[in-house]
Amino acid sequence: MKNIAKVFCSVAVLSAVGFGQTFVVSNTSEFRAALENAAANGENDTIILDKGRYVTTSDDKGTFEFNDDEDYNLTIKAKDGLTYKDVILDGNNTEQVFSFKNTNDSDNITLTVSSISVVNGKANKLDGGGIYCSKNIVVKDSNISNNFAGGEDKGYGFTPFYAGGGGFKSVKTAKVIRSIISNNKTNINGGGFNSYSSYIENSKIFNNYANGQGGGFNSDSSSNIQNSEIYKNKSIETGGGFNLGSVDINNSKIHDNISYTRGGGFDSSAAFIYNTDIYNNIVDEKYFRYKDYYSNKASGGGFYASGKVILKNSKLFNNIAKSHESYLKGMGGGFASKSDAIIINTSFVNNKSENLTGAFLNHGNSIIVNSYFKDNDYDFLTNLDRWTNLYDSSSYSYIINCTFSGAKNAISASATTLINTIFESDDYYVSLHGNSKIYNSYIDYTALANKENKTFIKKHNLQPSTVGDVMFADNNITLLPESPVINKGLNPDSEGFKKLIDNDDIYKTIKDALKTDINGNPRIKGGTIDMGVYEYGSTNEGTSSPTDVQGNNPSINSNTIPNTTSDSGGGGGAMSWLFPLFAILLFARRRFIDKK
What we know:
Layout: H1 2-16, E1 21-25, H2 28-40, E2 45-49, E3 52-55, E4 64-68, E5 74-78, E6 87-90, E7 98-102, E8 110-114, E9 117-119, E10 122-123, E11 131-133, E12 136-140, E13 143-145, E14 148-149, E15 168-177, E16 180-182, E17 185-186, E18 193-201, E19 204-206, E20 209-210, E21 217-219, E22 223-226, E23 229-231, E24 234-235, E25 242-243, E26 246-250, E27 253-255, E28 258-259, E29 266-268, E30 270-274, E31 277-279, E32 282-284, E33 303-305, E34 309-312, E35 315-317, E36 320-322, E37 335-337, E38 341-344, E39 347-349, E40 352-353, E41 360-362, E42 366-369, E43 372-374, E44 377-378, E45 390-392, E46 397-400, E47 403-405, E48 409-414, E49 416-419, E50 422-424, E51 428-433, E52 437-439, E53 457-459, H3 464-467, H4 495-500, H5 504-513, H6 546-549, H7 578-595
Parallel strand pairs: 1-2, 2-5, 3-6, 4-7, 5-8, 6-9, 7-11, 8-12, 9-13, 10-14, 11-15, 12-15, 13-16, 14-17, 15-18, 16-19, 17-20, 18-21, 18-22, 19-23, 20-24, 21-25, 22-26, 23-27, 24-28, 25-29, 26-30, 27-31, 28-32, 29-33, 30-34, 31-35, 32-36, 33-37, 34-38, 35-39, 36-40, 37-41, 38-42, 39-43, ...
């Protein structure tokens, strides 16, 4: 251990003032020795691995292990200039690759894995096929692939929610940054990984499988997903892409995931989604095992949320909810929710469900502004037409400046205030209940299911039989110059508009959303707002094209997944600042002596 001995000597002084110890290793035996020494030295430690494949079976000693009981962190990283393609921890499809266990009570202890691949782990009766971490974990610029976890038997007579983690298991928080999590499997929950909470940034999670919940990953609590892509994952139970508590998603893609229970793209308690494409996800109850355990089975092709939903500047298209059983299953092709939903500048295109609503099903109150619905289909197997777009069983709904277009359009909503909205279709059906109001909209009154309802208030609307066609451009969103709906809306600043929105907070939400149209173009042009999602004659350089709204060209900002340049931070460069530190200490000592 010549190199390690040199490092011991170099950092001995630094340890006394609270700095970590650094080990540089180049083979399996040196790596094991570094882990053992790091666990015993009472410091934060960094182990730097040189280029090579570190195989658990090469010395017949099995899983690489780190066991500690003190409040210190451990970083394992590739040598500067190397990437996860150069440094590989390999379980040889025989055993768990790495185990990090710390019995200290601190919740801040963290294992960091940087610029390393962890592959071919096999933990038949354990959690974490690639890595097990009893504390927090940070996976940076790394690749966790081709691992398997059977799940640990806790003696409960069943496998608990938090068991599993094909790629890795973290008892606390997992952070995945600029990394790949792929082709991992578990018999329990979290094909890619399993954690209490999670943060994912600039990463790809794909081709993972869970025989339980969360094909891509499973987090018991909250998750934050930024600029990432989660796709082609599969789960037998809830959450094809992922399963968790509440989730914040921004600038990401979630697509081609499958769940055989609920939530094709994902299943959550609450979802806050911005600038994200959710498409080609499927929930299909065909192979579902626990038929009496989950409520709302086969619901939410794109996603399912038991709590609040916020969707802004996003696209949901080509998602499917299928059921092979009775009525009231297979609901919400785009998404299904049991609570309130706020939907702004979002498009729903070609989503399908077997029962109740192709676009979305919501059992809470809804605010829908500047949003586009086209060719969503309810009961596509039997070709029934009712509620192809949305079904809302709440106490109120606000549908403002939306456009419903395509071959089939239908909605069912309670106590609805519908303003500046276009219904353009050869065949549509609108069922509004309670004290509903329809103002300044393009709508055929003959399509109202309960048009004789005396509680309806209908004012300043345009009838197709009177004004003719809407006159969309070919994309069914932008308006031609001769369109009758231009300058025919009700301005959000007007007293009439304010009176229709009888809640100050809701009014503010709607008014803020109407500062622009669905493409980000400023409203209002020509003195009066247009009906529908698009403001004619208004442009905003740099905004997305209308075809993007329909889901024909899904894109997000370029991901750096993963960064192939090694991260020199994280405590791995102790030697680089060793001599400047000594110079500072020496200078301070001399000034102290001079003062005396």
